Amino acid sequence: LPVGIPTAGNTHEVAQAAAPDCRVVYVDYDPVVLAHARALLTSSPQGATGYIDADLRDTGSILGQAAETLDFAQPVAVLLFSIMQVIGDDDNPYGIVARLIDAVPPGSYLALSHPSSDIIAREKASKLIGILKPLMHQKTTLRGHAEVARFFDVLELVEPGLVPVEDWRPDSKTKAKSPSGIWGGVGRKR
Predict the structure, then answer these.
(1) Which of 35, 39, 66, 171 is deepest in the core (most CB within 10 A)?
(2) Confidence grade of residue 125 (pLDDT, cut at 50, 70, 90)
(3) Alpha-carbon distance 110 to 38, whole Å?
């Protein structure tokens, strides 16, 4: 859902290369990011790409605006890559994901990555927080495997399950030099 500063290989570019009529909606509340997105990210002629100015915590606004571009009668992929760590426990991160998943039909997917508190040693996790903190204007919450797995509670995990992100393509010619410290998983709504 978050956009971030646009780069090459954006979600809509990859999706519309495979299915030109694909519709993609990005969400972010940073006005600079949204200005870049609107200026630089364009859709294929057959598809649609939308941008929503909203905080991830405001699922009602996100879903209402997304319905202008997406057909919620068709399966949807909800992509939450490296965003849930900025949603602290006080903001009910599991409720946010549950509301998004409740709104999409069976056959939809959730793909999520989340910095870990337990893949790497506590010392390295603290170092990771030290690196992330100056880059982010929000508190970062690392979560362990069991905590990240809760985001998939009502979903069927796709193989290989919730694993370090580098294990999603174990046969890749590009090997990680060290553990990423990030859990990744894909779940399908039944």
Answers:
(1) 66
(2) low
(3) 25
